[in-house]
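Subject: for your reference before the review

Hello V.,

The reviewers asked for a structural picture of the protein, and I figured it would be easier to keep everything in one thread rather than splitting it across files. Below is the amino acid sequence we used in the manuscript, unchanged from the supplementary table.
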Amino acid sequence: MTNQLPQTASVQTSEALDRDRDEGHVIECDGTEARISALAGMGEDAENYWAVGQLISIQVGKNRVVGLLYKVENGEIGWDQPEKRRVTLFVELSGEVRQDERRGAIFSGGISQYPHVGAVAHRIRKHDLITIYKSSDPSAVTVGSLSQAPDIPAVVSVDALLSRHFSVVGTTGTGKSTAVTLILHLIAKHKLNQRILILDPHNEYTSAFGAKANTITADTLDLPFWLLNLEEFQQVIFRGREGSDEEVDALREFIPKAKIVYKHGAQGVRRKSSASSAFTADTPVPYRLADLLKLIEEEIGSLDGALRRLTLRRLKARIEAAINDPRFGFLFGSHNATDRIEDVLGNIYRVPIGGKPITVFQMSGIPSEVVNSVASVLCRMAFDIALASNSKVKTLVVCEEAHRYIPADTQTGFAPTRAAIARIAKEGRKYGVSLAIITQRPNELDPTILSQCNTIFSLRLGNDADQDVMRKAIANGSRSTLAFLSSLADRE
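And here is what came back from the structure prediction:
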């Protein structure tokens, strides 16, 4: 396998780029495209021919307008005397190379002067390719090479990836995991203070990072139940289903009381001090399940109404069943409320880093009915920790199979998980929390979240719906470039 991510679909050697300079001439141009008339080319060497995927430069004064050749059309039926055959080249314009007095040749995405009829067109020169793809960003890293010129590196800015979020999409088997692994290795190498939390549903990444990774499984996970907010806790208690309004209201009433008992003792509940009233069911402070069950039992004993008593008994039975379920041992392994937040910070969020900046969180062993709650609390805490540390604890949250947690249908999925990921996508960059969305099904992903990813690495996408999502997500993406998504090679 190769860790190369070429950035275009065409294949041209760098020698051919400078050797073969067959001319064409512009015969038509509008604001986005140019049509060029040229001889088809001769010889057995395919590099003598105009081919879809080549970059074309058009001389306009001192500037060179750059475009992508996306269609070649033969003007006549049949194929006779190829050395005299004229073809029409359809080129989508994307920018221009111009000379700057101080910086020399520079590339810009806009076009200051459009080609005129008769302007000379060539396959692009190698030094123009270098100008287009070079980067002066000190955080730039090499992720592969260009298909047009394998000796020219394709680079991306690590700072831009982290500050603006990124996504990796591609059909299964195209090299998506290889690409993600390469990118994360480069981030860990160049950002020594960067934590990386990977939500790994298929146990793919542990072997990829070796000693740099701290792997957490359902057997080694210790996630205190009191860190869950009310919605997350009720998903555990009700096994992924919605509980009755009466039972949820009871949890909302008794969980804060259990927190008061832990902090102030039983007298604190009766005093109802102002400090006690600060607790809610979502406040991340310790409490004991024994206190919660005792408070519910006491309420049952004091009631005359059969309906309320039945509701509380049912709730009490649900809590006890969850506590005794061995699959939930990572939450309820200790019924006591010992404050283990330092252990959580050290093990999951790498505070301190301790030479292992990457946490691979294997989700496969988590019970399916509560996996969304676990994902929710992990993403939510990553944001809260960064906020509480004044942006000193910087974390990249990598959501593999992201369509599971943030589906396009807002009526499905788990609302707290969606909210936690959306909060990182919309506000995380201000506090040093970054997001990486990994999916093989972009059309099943919430488009609002995907639109927050300013960098998208797209491997082959054969599904028309997935390609349509990419067209909408990449606002400044050229139509002809996106047309290559279905024909990219593996790891391209």
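For the response letter, the relevant points are probably these. The first strand starts at residue 24 and ends at 29. The chain has 17 helices and 16 strands.

Happy to draft the paragraph if you're swamped.

O.
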